[in-house]
Amino acid sequence: MFWVLLVGILAAGVIAHMLGTTAPVNTRELTVSYSSNAARIMIVTGLIIFVCSHLHNAFHTHEIDVFLSRPITRTKLILSYWVGFAYVALIHASAVIVLLAWQDVVNWKGFILWSVSLLLECWLVVAIALFSAFTLRSNVAAVLASMGFYILARMMIFFIAATRTAFLFENQWLNNIVIYILKGVSIIMPRLDFFAHDEWLISGAKHAADLEVFVIQTVIFIPLLILATMADFNKKQF
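Given the sequence above, the corresponding structure tokens read:
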């Protein structure tokens, strides 16, 4: 699975590069944009499947029971799993970064910002998948929950845009209820739409706050998800 994910990332980047070179105008920019988005989608999907499948097999083969029979706390076990999966994410994110650097770098400052953002996004995705895998014993359910959570967090910008219009429904009171719900969800959900903007690779970051936003979210939500995983895992009986 590890090598299949790595090959898939490289294949997605190469195919996107080939599609970008067929553009009649702005070939360089479109190639970078296609490659970055294709590689990001592949790495996020692969990490979710990898983490959930590995932990499902660990529960199924009683590997978790073996670990718990040793002098290791459940807290350390969760942290060890996250660190291990974070290292896997680092390897694959590095492959994506090298792939984009090999193709061509339009804006170096934007490229560095995008690279850091991609790595932090992968670590956050690992925490999401880890939480789903420990709380949901079904591998399929854990993968779907992680993917749904990621897609919802990525599309949060569209939900926020929807709150700025009063034409969702004919009844204004219903519009107000929906707007309050969407605003509430956007507060408790990580805003992954602030991560890995492909325009950074072309024109660079427009504001210094672009760096602060995704770093702060990473610092908040990764520990929060790990603590939630620990709380649920400590309540389980084996």
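The chain has one domain: 2-235. Try to locate this feature in the token string yourself.
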